[in-house]
């Protein structure tokens, strides 16, 4: 009651530009903590995908004109929770198998909260020396975890799309510099043409980035892929002039890896840059048991990965690593408008962003908490779970379309029409959520096991739900 009164008073003060007292802030943050805790607790039992009525309720709650006056902060938070929480997708829980989506390990979520309280502007050492130190440490640990060259320069960005962008911007600079062209000064008009070579199973985000960088979506030279979506090294075209070869560590459907060693060797003989989109697959390198799947990728020139996928940190969090630091700096460094008065690494000089959040803190917390062994265990457990489920479905006569070596399962329930019906039944059950895809010209369901929160019991629920839908659809 007392707190309520304080906020009521406060809302009047807010109009005169006053700020929260310490007590008010404590009360508000404790309330946020309690609500978050209840939300996470409910995840174990609630529907995975919200119902239309929950979304309608949220829409109604948010509609209407911008309020003229203030609303007490506790009331604002209550509205966000009461109407927002039931409308969310329970992807932070263990029964979400859509896209390739990790959850948030508790230590990472907690560190993320704290870092949000810090509210640092993390563009550089000059704006937040503390987060710059976290970032240096994290990049070092990530290179160790993924067994990638220690001298590489890195950038923490929003996700794999921006990591691909960052890496390919460095690649574009590097191959043109070798051809005597200063891309950042002279621009793309009149520059020597760059050939971009990619497997025909290239992820859409890389194609998007190719367009963003002026490399031309329609100019990509595609290399045929095999039945698992792996680029065929024997079909690599003759490479001449400035060229970038894009390979994959983890096909978004099958989880398969391109034959890196052979492709990189051939490409490097011609001076081409090899870029790896390893959004989730690159994490296989952190496990001694799975590393063979992603062997040879360390010889590439740049790597993109997602921390918000298999490292299980909160959104948004991606990683770009580039073997040639000067190429990355040339592509990303700011002009003299920002004079940074020291020699230390400044994120603004190696990322596309300027002002940015402290992603390094969430990542550091996970790496410190799990250590090498814990990280490998988390990845291996999901792979074991995926293999178990694939075997269970196969035993029940369901067709699995990929070799399940990682965390991805591609499933057909017969004709495209029937597959769509079964997916619909599974999604509307609310017990689990899996998405649809198209694989080798067939509509299919994709199951991605990528979350720390997924228990073996959740896997049994997944099996039972899928089998039930398969049985019930005509
Ligand atoms: C192979 C691959 N590359 C890139 C991306 C894009 O990642 P993000 O959504 O984090 O930008 C994804 C996302 O699923 C992916 O699986």
A few lines on this structure:
This protein has 474 residues and is of the alpha/beta class. The protein has helices spanning 2-14, 22-42, 52-62, 73-84, 106-118, 129-146, 160-178, 183-186, 204-212, 260-269, 325-332, 359-395, 416-429, 456-472; strands at 153-157, 195-199, 221-223, 243-248, 273-277, 302-306, 318-322, 399-400, 408-412, 435-439, 442-448. The site of pyridoxal-5'-phosphate has 14 residues, from helix 7.
Q: Could you walk me through the main structural features you see in this protein, from its secondary elements to its overall organization?
A:
The chain has helices spanning 2-14, 22-42, 52-62, 73-84, 106-118, 129-146, 160-178, 183-186, 204-212, 260-269, 325-332, 359-395, 416-429, 456-472, and strands spanning 153-157, 195-199, 221-223, 243-248, 273-277, 302-306, 318-322, 399-400, 408-412, 435-439, 442-448. The protein is of the alpha/beta class and 474 residues long. It folds into two domains: 2-90, no CATH class; 109-366, Aspartate Aminotransferase, domain 2. The strands form two sheets. A seven-stranded mixed β-sheet has the order 1-7-6-5-4-2-3, sandwiched between helices. Strands 8-9-11-10 form a four-stranded antiparallel β-sheet. It is globular and about 60 Å long. Mean pLDDT is 94; it is low at 1-5 and 336-341. Pyridoxal-5'-phosphate binds at residues 99-100, 159-161, 203, 205, 250, 252, 277, 279-280, 306, 318.
């Amino acid at each position: 009651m007392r707190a309520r009164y304080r906020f009521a008073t406060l809302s009047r003060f807010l109009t005169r530009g006053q700020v929260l007292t310490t007590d008010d802030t404590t009360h508000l943050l404790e309330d946020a903590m309690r609500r978050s805790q209840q939300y996470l607790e409910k995840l174990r039992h609630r529907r995975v995908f919200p119902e239309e009525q929950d979304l309608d309720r949220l829409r109604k709650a948010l509609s209407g004109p911008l309020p003229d006056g203030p609303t007490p902060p506790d009331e604002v938070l209550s509205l966000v929770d009461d109407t927002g929480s039931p409308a969310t997708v329970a992807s932070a829980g263990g029964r979400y198998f859509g896209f390739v989506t990790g959850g948030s390990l508790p230590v990472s979520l907690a560190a993320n909260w704290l870092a949000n309280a810090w509210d640092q502007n993390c563009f550089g050492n000059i704006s937040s020396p503390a987060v710059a130190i976290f970032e240096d440490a994290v990049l070092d640990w990530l290179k160790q975890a993924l067994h990638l060259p220690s001298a590489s320069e890195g950038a923490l960005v929003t996700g794999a799309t921006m990591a691909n962008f960052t890496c390919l911007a460095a690649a574009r600079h590097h191959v043109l510099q070798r051809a005597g062209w200063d891309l950042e000064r002279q621009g793309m008009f009149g520059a020597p043409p760059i050939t971009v070579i990619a497997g025909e199973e290239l992820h859409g985000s890389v194609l998007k980035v190719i367009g963003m960088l002026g490399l031309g979506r329609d100019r990509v030279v595609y290399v045929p892929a095999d039945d698992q979506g792996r680029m065929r090294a024997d079909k690599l075209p003759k490479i001449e002039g400035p060229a970038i070869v894009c390979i994959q560590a983890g096909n978004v459907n099958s989880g398969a890896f391109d034959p890196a060693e052979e492709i990189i060797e051939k490409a490097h003989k011609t001076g081409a840059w090899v870029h790896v989109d390893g959004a989730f697959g690159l994490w296989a390198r952190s496990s001694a048991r799975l590393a063979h799947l992603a062997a040879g990728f360390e010889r590439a020139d740049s790597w993109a990965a997602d921390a918000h996928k298999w490292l299980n940190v909160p959104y948004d969090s991606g990683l770009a690593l580039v073997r040639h630091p000067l190429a990355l700096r040339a592509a990303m460094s700011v002009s003299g408008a920002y004079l940074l008065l020291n020699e230390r690494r400044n994120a603004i000089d190696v990322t596309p962003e300027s002002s940015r959040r402290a992603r390094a803190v969430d990542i550091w917390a996970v790496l410190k908490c799990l250590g090498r062994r814990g990280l490998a265990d988390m990845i291996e457990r999901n792979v074991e779970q995926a293999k178990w489920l694939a075997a269970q479905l196969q035993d029940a006569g369901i067709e699995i379309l990929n070799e399940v070596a990682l965390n991805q399962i591609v499933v057909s329930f017969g004709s495209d029409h029937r597959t769509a019906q079964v997916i619909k039944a599974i999604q509307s059950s609310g017990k689990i959520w899996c998405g649809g895809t198209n694989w080798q010209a067939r509509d299919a369901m994709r199951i991605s096991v990528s979350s720390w929160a997924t228990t073996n019991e959740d896997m049994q629920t997944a099996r039972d739900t899928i089998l039930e839908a398969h049985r019930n659809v005509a």
